[in-house]
Amino acid sequence: MKKLTILATVVAGLFVVACTNSGGALKRNEISDWTANLLKMREKTNVDFKNDPVSPMAGIGRLSVPAGIICYLVPGSHAVNMSDKAADAVLKVSNVDGNWTWKSLTDDVSVELNGKSVNSEAVEDGMLFHFGSYTLQAYTGKERLILIVFDSKRPELLQFQHLRYFEPNSDLVLNAKVERIQHPDKITMLTSRNLEKGYYRYAVLHFSVNGENCQLTAYKMNLKGKYDHELFIPFRDATSGKESYGAGRFLELKETPGDIMRLDFNLAFNP
Predict the structure, then answer these.
(1) Radius of gyration over alpha carbons of the chain, in Å?
(2) Domain boundaries of the chain, sorted by first residue
(3) Which residue in 195, 198, 242, 271 is a FRET match for 143, CA 20 to 30 A apart?
(4) Under a CB-based contact definition with an 8 Å cutoff, are residues 162 and 143 in contact?
(5) What is the tens place of the pLDDT at every residue in 213-255?
(6) What whole-number distance in Å separates Cα of residue 61 and Cα of residue 53?
(7) pLDDT of 131-180, one tens digit each?
(8) Selecting from 3.50.4, 2.60.200, 2.60.120, 1.20.140, what CATH number does the domain 57-151 have?
(9) Could you tell me the pTM of the whole model?
(10) CB-hemisphere CA count at 13 Å for 58?
């Protein structure tokens, strides 16, 4: 299995967003509704960033718990700390026979997965542990458990008003020809949170900008089952490192049937 660093070496081609495309996918009479929907979507994103317990604006740290130990989690004034002692701890995590488990040590802890309360003591990917102003998001692995730490009282979150966006540009809504890869190979991507995620190289997307041929690679987390209809499309462009995130941005789109897919680069975002 190949290993790549996400948004840095994974890009199959560069799309020069800075140029103007005269052949967008939108018809002239569609642009007004498209603009209104885009602005509404951006406003919802701003609200989510402000209120979501795992908002990137609330992120304060990353804990790495190795297998083979019992780890106690102790909340501090500005952080959550790992300890080998139970004093002042609110949560215990451990790996027993290759399985990660958790146990609440106080009544202050609540646990959820996909929006539903959890009673099972098995740790699953994406599980959220809430206590005080903190939320921990879990990512399991054989050798270690990664816990991303969020704090709803982080000053940057409290001061947050809105994200910065480029002005809506209907010329950056493009039709791409989908060339599905016959035998998708699996790679491992290293995310901005230093987590490893497996993706299949699923399709090459062909499109043109001002007569220049461009292409990007679309990835899938699963070919069948959960998330098998979701495409992850990383890219860099002329704004990278200047007006936008230096490592690049990406699109997350639902796969549509057929050989033509609409790409709206106004929806691109960074980690």
Answers:
(1) 21
(2) 2-51+163-267, 57-151
(3) 271
(4) no
(5) 999 999 999 998 877 899 999 998 888 888 887 888 999 999 9
(6) 14
(7) 999 999 999 988 999 999 999 999 999 999 999 999 999 999 999 999 99
(8) 2.60.200
(9) 0.80
(10) 19
137: number of Cβ within 10 Å:
19
CA distances from 52 to 30, 58, 249 (A): 32, 8, 21
Q: Are 89 and 83 in contact (CB under 8 A)?
A: yes
Query: Which pair of structure tokens corresponds to residue 267?
Result: 């929806």
SS3 247: coil
Token pair in block for residue 143? 């050798």
Render pLDDT for 16-60 as a digit per residue (tens, 0 to 9).
433 334 457 899 999 999 999 999 999 999 999 999 999 999 999
Instruction: Retrieve residue 77's tokens.
Output: 């004034």
Length of the chain: 271
Are 18 and 238 within 8 A, CB to CB? yes
The H-or-E segment that residue 60 falls in is: strand 59-66
Cα separation, 249 vs 206, in Å, equals 18
Distant-in-sequence, close-in-space partners of 197: CB < 8 Å, separation ≥ 6: 6, 188, 189, 191, 221
